[in-house]
Automatic annotation (TrEMBL):
Gene3D superfamilies per UniProt: Isochorismatase-like
Location of the Isochorismatase-like domain: 16-165
Membrane-traversing stretches: none
Protein's recorded name: Isochorismatase family protein
Any Pfam family hit: Isochorismatase
Amino acid sequence: MTTQHYPNTRFTPENSAILLVDHQTGLLLGVKDLDQDMVRRNAATLARTAKMFNLPVILTTSAEDGPNGPLIPQITNELPDVKVIQRTGEIDAFDYPEFADAVEATGRKNLIIAGISTDVCLTFAALSAVARGYNVHALIDASGTWNDAAQATSIARMSAAGVTMNSTVGITAELQRDWKNPTGEQLAGLYADLAIPFYQTLIALRS
C-alpha cells in the first residue's frame, strides 16, 4: 500500500484539479448511504470551489440520454461553460480516451474526485488515477451509493490502493490553508451557503 504523508502531498490551488464523475439526476435518486440533498450541496460546493481557486475541473457522464440522466443542475448552474465529457459506455472514466487526455492536459498531479456511485464511478476512477501516478483524494460526502455496505467496501478498496479519503470541507480547507489568504471570505460564505449551513449562524453571531 502506498503511504501518503500529508506534508509531501498537500493539495494546493496550484497543483490540484477536480473531477466530478457521473453526478447524474437518475443515479442520485438511488443514493441511500447519505442524504441526497447533502450530496447535491457538496457537489455544488466543489463546482464553486473550482471557480474560487481557479482549479481545472472535468465533468463527465455515462448514458446521459438513458436512465442515468444529465448532470445535476447544482453542478451545471455553477459551471455552465465547462464541457461535459459524455462517455459512450466506458464504466471507468479513465477508459474513455477523451477523459484521460483531459485529466493529463490539466498538468496537475493531485486529483480531487467525487462520483455517483461511490463503489463504481468514484472507485474505478480513483484506482485508475493512482495507477497512472496521480495523488488522489476521494470525497465520500460528495459521492453516494446504494447502501452502507457498498460505501464501506469502496472505502476499504480505495484506501488499500493508496487513495486518501476526505470530505468536502476537509479538502476545501486544505486548499485554503490560511483564512488570511484572499479567498478566505469567499470560502466562509461558501460554507454558509452550501457545505455547512449552520455556519451562517456563526457568521451572524460574529457580525
